[in-house]
Structures are given as C-alpha cells and as structure tokens.
Amino acid sequence: MRILVIEDEDKTAAYLSAGLIENGFVVDIASNGLDGLEFVRTQDYDLVILDVMLPKLDGWGVIKEIRRSHPDVRVLFLTACDDVEEKVKGLELGADDYLIKPFAFSELLARIRTLLRRTPAKQSTHLMIADLTINFIEHRATRGSQKLDLTPKEFSLLTFLAQHQGEVMSRTFIASHVWNINFDTDTNIVDVAIRRLRQKIDDPYEIKLIHSVRGIGYMLEQR
After folding, report:
1. Structural domain of 64
2. Does the reported pTM lie above 0.70?
3. Which residues does 138 contact at the CB level (< 8 Å), separation at least 6?
4. In what order do the strands lie in the sheet with 210-213?
5. Burial 176-201 (b: 16+ CB within 10 A, else e)
6. The pLDDT value given to residue 120
7. pLDDT by residue (tens digit) across 53-88?
8. Which ranges of the chain have pLDDT less than 50?
9. Are 109 and 142 found together in one domain?
C-alpha cells in the first residue's frame, strides 16, 4: 500500500520513510504543502501522514483540498500541535486520526493499520491471481492454503507486480516504486529480489506467475 508523508523536518521524514518501508509500505515524501497536494493529484495513495506547520501551505489548507478532491484518502495528522482545540480542528476538517509528536513508531504503525482496515467498499482489501491471494491490510499472501513467508520488502514487491498484473514493469520502475531509489544499472537489487521472491511463490508450484521479459523487466500474470 502507498503512503504519502508531508513533513518538512528532514530527519522526521527520513525516520518515517525508513520505518514504513521496512514494514512493507511504498512511501513518497513531500516537504511542503503545495508539493504534497501535487503528489495527491498525480498519484493514488491509501494514506496521507500530514504535519500542520508546513511551508507554502499549512496542514489545514492541505486537508481541506484533499477532502474536496479525494474524499476517500485516509489522513493522519502527525504534529507537535498538542492543543485540544487544534486536534478538534483537524478532526473537524476531516482527519481520520491525530497523533502528537514525539510518538512511538509502534503506535503510529498500529494507527495506520487500523485506518487502512477502514477501506471504502469500492476498494478491495484482497487481490487474487490464480491460486495466489494477497491481503493488503494484513500484509499476508498465500498460494492455495499455504501461507507464504515473505519479508516486508518481498511483500511490497509482490504487491506492486500484482497491482500491475499483465503489465511489463521495467527494473527502473520497480526500483523507484518499491525501493524509492533511482535505478543504477550496475546494481542488481531488482533481479536478486525477484529471484528470491520466485523461490517462494513460484518454485514449489506448477503454475508460474512471475515472468521475465528480456531486456525490459518483469511481469506477473497467470498463463
């Protein structure tokens, strides 16, 4: 699942990004309110983590626009503004939750997962391809009745490929969206990760789902 962090403190943003990626989420970072809104307009997010005190456009302005244009996106305020009136204001403007800094990452993660369980009916929490089932909320995947023992990064990679079922994903595109890095042609991180993922979801089974496209990248589909 994809999360946008709108946070102008570099250390906090890096801490959030590292922790969320470690737990299997795809993360984008915006350092001011206007850039954050541009991300929301051009990408699909399951959750936005939003600070109040932001350059160019504060969190109040950001959430007003998000609620006008993307009413189904979950928004969690993460801010040092601990005044009760500020918290009430955030919730009244449409925030789904409000957490005060400093915070325990374990609590933030629990709140995120709780919010993501409240998925609108039009969005599915599961995806099925052949006998592969992916549960986005519980971060769990199975083939048939067998649970797949995936690392958070492997789960993110599988989810990304599955959400683009039947599409050829280049190594550059995969690296950008799953690792949040610019792909270096001297780095084989994508190929290594695909090989390890195949060992778990393809090698033990007759039907193979991950396919190589020579010179381009990979795709996931039932053939």
Report:
1. 2-116
2. no
3. none
4. 169-170, 217-220, 210-213
5. ebbbeeebeeeeebbeebbeebbebb
6. 52
7. 999 999 999 999 998 888 888 999 998 887 888 888
8. 121-122
9. no
